[in-house]
Amino acid sequence: MKENKILKLIHVAWRERWSDSQFGINIKNVLPRGVSGDVYNLADCILQQALIGSTANPLVLNYLKHSLCAHLVSHAAVLRRIAKYEHFERLYCTTSLLDFLDSVIAGATCRTKTEEAILPGAVVSLINWLMQVFAMITAHYEIHRELNSEQSYMLGQCCLVIEKVIKNQFLMATIYVGCHEDPDYYGQIRERYAAIKTSLTNSNFSPTHPSIETYLHQLAYVDVHHLDMPLLDIQPKPEPVNYCVQPLLTVDVLLNPCNDTSYYVAKMQMVQRLKKFSNTRLFYEIVRAGFVSLSNVMETTHDTMWGAFTFFKVPQIIKQLQALNRAVGEQTLNDYIPEVVEAIELLLEDKLLLDFMDSKCSCNIIEYLLNDWTKQHLVNDMHVKHFAAQREGTSVLLQKRDASAQAPSIINFIIRAEVPLSGVLKTLSTDYNKVQEALLGVLCQVLVGNSFDLILSVATVEGRLKTFVSRLIQCNENSKQVPGEMGKASIIRSTLFDVSFLMLTFIVQTYGSDAVLSNNGDSFFEKWVRECMVERNKPKNPRSMIVMCDENMVDELLLNLSKPEPQLKNINITWQDICLNLPGVLYQVLIAWEKETLSSGDVKNILDNIKRRLFSFSVCATSFLCAYMCSVKENELLKPLNMIQQFLAPPSAEEMSSQENIKERLGLSFQIIRKMQHDVRPTVNPKSRSITLVQNLVSQTPLMDQFRDVWRTVNENGWLPIRAAQILESLLHAGGAAWLTTRLLEEILKCKYIHDMMKTMDIVFAILHLDIELSTEALLTQVVPAMIQNRQGEDIDEPHLHVLARLCVYCIISAVETRHYRNFSYQKKRSRSHDGDDMDLNSTVKMRKINTDSSDNSSSNDFLGDSNLFNAHASTHLRNTPNQLKESLQNSIQYIFKIFQQFLQTDKLSLKVYFVYQFVSLLVECGQERVRLVLNLLPTNLINNLLKVMLTDQISVGLIARLYDLRTSCGRQSAVADLTLWRNLKLKEQSIHL
């Protein structure tokens, strides 16, 4: 009914030649108040009357333009109606529509929610229509080889409209949203573009507009990169020194030494994306980080660990990174990687570091490193000679040094440790009953000097530590006491039980049971670890240990141990049962000593008898005593402490000569006992190597003083020493994530210059990886909101806010990706059979010889497959975004977004509002699609409110388009709503300037 009235009104307006304003006044009498003309197809009615003849009616078209200006009809409805016009043979009508579009397209926008819903589809339809016009003209030229004046003019106007669409960021963003709305329809546009391209090629036709082919391609393949997005990069030049890679690797090697290569690859890829490093720069930073860390370590364990990491793990990290970053179809050279060569060139500029490393390792470190890399095809012999020549002067100086003054090169020991490791694993895999005596000799030889540290380091880096542990557990199981066995066989069996138990305990102490043991292992040792062994940060309940004990066995042991010369071998209790029942024995001894039923001499006799037969008994007893000390008052610690000291008393010369291989076992047991004691009651000046491995939670120094001391060291060096990382880890456990994160952020706020802020932020970001998920949650829920709200304007302003926002974004990205990769690694490990880790070493060696690309020094599962295997199997998991967030992390992100909403409850631009903008913008800039789950948590009106406060020059359509998941209807609706608000605010600013 209304449409008929509108059509009649248009007829009257045409007959009486009404002006635009007259038409506008009268049409409002037809349309109900507050109702858009779109409801009654006003645009369709006007265009229907304007395009009746062979030429368009200019007066009626003017009515349509006036209706647009008066908001009587929407741009979406007009564009959608024009896109339906198919009478291209009417050249003048088509040309008039192009002229009309040329005059109105720049002002296209939306005013209501209804218009927002149809605008993306309307603009995409218009693009299809423009492609049809262009295709019609090019097809005509292809056939007739000429264009008349009307066709030439039409082509020119079509190009002008396309150019205006391309240069209108709002329209391009709307097209980008629209192409996700109906992918099949957008596919037709691409097909039409392909036909146009074919016609242009076949006819050799070159449109007068110089860039039209580029514009057509952009419209057919519209991408988010076509949308402007200013980057918040306060460092326009590449940073000369990176302070993130070395601390990050230090933390990872400290916490996760057993992780396979792909774990480190994922971390380095994350840094590469955040820092926008080239492969060359990333490889340089990784090698430099290994050298810097190796130059600092003093303890043998970490010396060998970092040496093994640098020489065994780093080449594999580089190979996998290069494989993942290689473009599809890109050819690789056979004998070297160009980026590695360029990275070594950069490394040679750091002469002080290389000179120090040459002196420390007693060799030309570059030449030594590259000689091994030639086998792995990272460099070739020509490169080795070239780089060795550049370091020739230093090599000469090294040769002139007094040979006696040169310490043996730790690198030589590390490289050589791979052969004994393979030998030990091979011996452990042989039939136990056939090689007991030989196996005992091999294991005891491993304990001589620092061989055990070297072998553990190489096994850890090469991914063979779990294989080593599983075979030692099997050896320990096979060595359990057999009732009735006597003589030499019994002695060998007991010594094997003792050695394997001590070695396993030391490994668990060093790496943690979670890293080396299976969750549900049913062996004796695994059961003892779960129920009786005191581990750092894993306290055990001494009462539970006592409850497990068998009363009859405890009584028999007490009776036997109380004798001056006990004969444990004659009692009916096996070694493994003694280990499990010693807590009951010691508890009874402690009670009796407290009640003075036993004298100090009696207690000493019992303790001496415990440690006389097997040193494993001393370790088991100490584990209970340490657990007991954690559960009693301060004034009750003296007696258990004295008991532990008795286990550390050296045996007599007669006892030392009474057993074979006693020296090695004794030394290892002392290390284990001191470490257990230190974890509970650290000594003031620890001298033992085993004690200094880990900083304990218990300390007489206030946490703040410890933090100041360690941060002073880190800040002065510009990198993270191993010892500093250990102390910071202890501070994290002692003070909590919120406390440590607050202290670290305070150090950022103390900086006055941008360079110092960014340097400190990089180091802090790496340190937070001590527990990145917990630290990120504390950062978002406790630390940053409190700082922004309570200290704004005091010492937190620009550029501090920018650095804080960047740190928050880095941590969120890392927490999301770390959880994703851990889940993948866990699934991958769960999918492997236990036997798969224990593959035959002979087969391994054969595979390394056969595989031309795997002549590396590794024989682990992680290294056997070449880069292509890794690329095919794991790269998809590394590149894909995670499908869910950890609940606590999701709650933390939602919490800070709610804080942001509170900041935006104003119409004034403040530092808080600007922080929100920087946070959101950096999240998109640094995370891109990898933080899609985080962006999906944005409140619906957050960006809308931000737009009303911020300037539209700072918030771009590129940012808005990247914020939402356009694959969902909700995401598209939110994107169009924000884009429309941005557009209208932009038009308002332009009208004010006019």
UniProtKB/TrEMBL annotation:
Organism equals: Glossina austeni (Savannah tsetse fly)
The GO cellular component terms are: mediator complex
Q: Which Pfam family would be a valid example here?
A: Med24_N
Listed GO biological process terms: positive regulation of transcription initiation by RNA polymerase II
What is stated as this protein's family in its record?
Belongs to the Mediator complex subunit 24 family.
Q: Name one GO molecular function term.
A: transcription coregulator activity
Q: What is this protein called?
A: Mediator of RNA polymerase II transcription subunit 24
Predominantly, its location class is nucleus
Keyword Electron transport present in the record's keywords: the answer is no
Q: Name the keywords, alphabetized.
A: Activator, Nucleus, Transcription, Transcription regulation
* Keyword DNA repair found: no
Where's it found, cell-wise? Answer: Nucleus
